[in-house]
Write a structure and sequence with these properties.
The protein is mainly α and 127 residues long. Helices cover 63% and strands 0% of the residues. It is globular. 28% of the residues are buried.
Length: 127
């Protein structure tokens, strides 16, 4: 009647992560997937085939993370920067990607924790 006997829903790890990154309550999905694919291509200096970045962007967008357009682009690019198959190929792109990510962060287009993860990962991998 008043919800006293209703079982309490438990949060899973993804719910906690989303609230940590985006706050409680998190925003609705708002990413423009086509724009995110273009931005990911910029971050990767078009070293990864567009159909490959496009496929990953669509998969990530279908998940529960409420990405902004720029957050989605960072997540797609980060996937390839971490992939051993692309490390040598993307070595020259990583510095420009880090600068572009910093610009987006300063403009308020990127979540702090995603920016930090992107920077920390690229720093460790590409010193």
């Amino acid at each position: 009647m008043f919800g006293f006997l209703r079982p309490k829903q438990t949060e899973n790890a993804m719910d906690v992560l989303i609230k940590t990154i985006y706050g409680d309550p998190p925003p609705a999905k708002r990413a423009n997937v086509s724009e995110a694919i273009e931005l990911a291509g910029m971050l990767l200096m078009n070293q990864v085939p567009n159909e490959t970045t496009s496929r990953l962007a669509q998969e990530l967008y279908q998940g529960s993370m409420p990405y902004s357009t720029h957050d989605l682009a960072l997540s797609v690019a980060l996937h390839f920067f971490k992939d051993p198959e692309y490390v040598d190929q993307l070595r020259s792109a990583q510095l420009m990607a880090r600068l572009l990510m910093l610009e987006w962060f300063q403009e308020g287009k990127v979540a702090l924790l995603l920016m930090k993860s992107f920077e920390d990962t690229l720093y460790k991998m590409y010193k």
